[in-house]
Design a protein that fits this description.
Layout lengths: L8 E6 H10 L7 E6 L2 H5 L6 E3 L2 H4 L8 H10 L1 H7 L5 E7 L3 H16 L4 E7 L6 H14 L5 E6 L13 H24 L8 H8 L3 E11 L3 H10 L11 E10 L5 H12 L7 E8 L6 E11 L3 H6 L8 H6 L3 E2 L2
Helix pairs in contact: 1-6, 1-8, 4-6, 6-7
Length: 338
């Protein structure tokens, strides 16, 4: 049975970029999602999307004017409504493009509300392109410093890293679409891991064990087909443009393998061992396996790495046991490969 039937997973997009992401993720129609903004006109452009305008008295629905302080006050005005939106949430995705007013100003406060209500939270954020100017870059850096105090784990997508030599001639509009697609892939990839029943399942408690106080993280996906499908998938995964830090800086790794029923034990062991050797030697690794009878010599590998530069043993000593239920803690299945 799908884990989605048991857990209330929500997605909040903050500001213009966050709203665009909400509008784009159509495949996850069962995920409860909402776009939050100070700009009513921007919200009105989002088709088939639940929206909420914050700070209507303060901004009159005309936006934050690029000022994070205005967005912060807007959240304070609408704090009660935000708390109501978050009721009964078991896991929250929050996404925003940092550097502007609403995304940079409202996201830290929403994250703080989640923390106070003990809602496990995954943040997926984009940093500005260089051509957007140093002011937006500074605002984005300030925002991420505030956000990471409250979210369990967060993925930073540097827009500049998405533009390689082959695609630097694309239009500005296409560049932003490319950034949106990576946000979509990150959220959808994690969502799929806990929403798909497989031969070896990654359940909700598995995911929480990686997320809790996970700090900076990354999510990558690799696909391989043909005679060299294993090697090609691993290469695709480990050379993803999102990856700016080596695997060995992370102490927790989730690997989800999706392949045909021709995948055997040696294949799974090869994948896990190859990725294990790229991580911290004391890393905790969780893996799942989903089989698709229609696939032959084809594989998809999704990896979620968390706890960058965090010693697993030390962080475990500092855990607040009330943050996860006793039942959840008993159900955790974390495997250490030494």
């Amino acid at each position: 049975m799908s884990n989605l039937l048991k857990h209330n997973i929500k997605l909040i997009g903050v500001g213009g970029c966050g709203g665009n992401t909400i509008s784009r993720i159509k495949s996850n129609s069962q995920m409860k999602s909402i776009a939050i903004n100070t700009d009513v006109n921007a919200l009105s452009l989002l088709d088939d999307t639940h929206t909420f305008a914050i700070g209507p008295k303060l901004t009159n629905g005309q936006g934050a004017g690029g000022d994070p302080l205005i967005a912060k006050k807007a959240i304070q005005e609408s704090k009660k409504q935000i708390q109501e939106l978050l009721l009964d949430t078991d896991l929250l995705f929050i996404t925003a493009g940092l550097g502007g007013g609403t995304g940079s100003g409202a996201t830290p406060l929403i994250s703080e509300i989640c923390r106070k209500n003990k809602i496990p939270t995954i943040g997926v954020f984009t940093m500005p392109f260089t051509f957007e100017g140093s002011n937006r870059a500074n605002l984005a850096n300030i925002a991420i410093e505030n956000i990471k105090k409250y979210v369990d784990t967060f993925i930073i997508i540097d827009n500049n890293s998405l533009l390689n030599k082959q695609n630097r001639n694309i239009s500005i509009h296409e560049a932003f679409l490319l950034a949106d697609s990576v946000i979509d892939q990150s959220i959808s990839g994690i969502y799929e891991i806990i929403n798909t029943t497989g031969t070896i399942n990654v359940d909700f408690s598995d995911l929480l064990s990686l997320l809790r106080d996970g700090g900076e993280s990354f999510m990558s996906k690799g696909i391989g087909k043909g005679n060299n499908f294993l090697e090609d998938a691993i290469l695709d995964l480990t050379t993803h443009p999102m990856i700016q830090n080596p695997f060995n800086e992370y102490s927790k790794l989730l690997i989800n393998i999706h392949g045909g029923n021709d995948i055997n034990f040696d294949n799974v062991e090869y994948i896990v061992e190859t990725l294990r050797k790229k991580t911290n030697e004391n890393s905790n690794i969780i893996f799942g396996l989903i089989e698709n009878k229609k696939w032959k010599k084809e594989i998809s590998i999704t990896a979620l790495a968390t706890s960058k530069n965090i010693n697993t043993e030390e962080s475990n000593d500092d855990k607040d046991s009330s943050y996860l239920s006793f039942e959840t803690q008993l159900d955790q299945k974390v495997f250490s490969f030494n």
